[in-house]
Write a structure and sequence with these properties.
about 130 residues; alpha+beta; 60s Ribosomal Protein L30, Chain: A; 2 helices
């Protein structure tokens, strides 16, 4: 009933969770675990906030692609940032990635993420026809 999606296009999970879970039947639903600004090939976390924002979204898109979806399948996005001054950066990068596609979204400014070097985490729910 549930299909776990794993891809090298996003970093390996840092603990016991799946990169994404697909739910069937009816419309396909994909629940993407929080993706951070880490390079999927090396696991490196860049110091630049902009690079982290771009990598986090690229990792989301990599998982969507592995499931046969793209940015247009995103139904809901939840984004966690650690610095209120990055709200403009978040919006700029999101708008470039979504290319005009509008999804439900929640932005939260939080005190910190799992690794203190991280400044952004993006999780999405996507859906596509069967």
């Amino acid at each position: 009933m549930l299909k776990q999606i794993e891809t090298d296009a996003a970093p390996k999970p840092f603990s016991n969770y799946a990169q994404a879970i697909e739910v069937a039947p009816g419309a396909r639903h994909l629940f993407v675990a929080g993706q951070v600004g880490a390079d999927p090939a090396t696991g490196n976390i860049p110091e630049s906030a902009e690079e982290q924002h771009r990598l986090a979204w690229a990792n989301v898109l990599g998982i969507l692609k592995a499931a046969g979806m793209d940015h247009r399948a995103i139904v809901d996005a939840r984004v966690f940032i650690t610095d209120r001054s990055q709200i403009g950066l978040y919006r700029q990068v999101r708008d470039e990635i979504l290319k005009g596609h509008k999804a439900a979204a929640t932005l939260l400014v939080v005190a910190g993420l799992a690794d203190p070097r991280l400044v952004v985490e993006v999780t999405v729910i996507a859906a596509a026809p069967v």
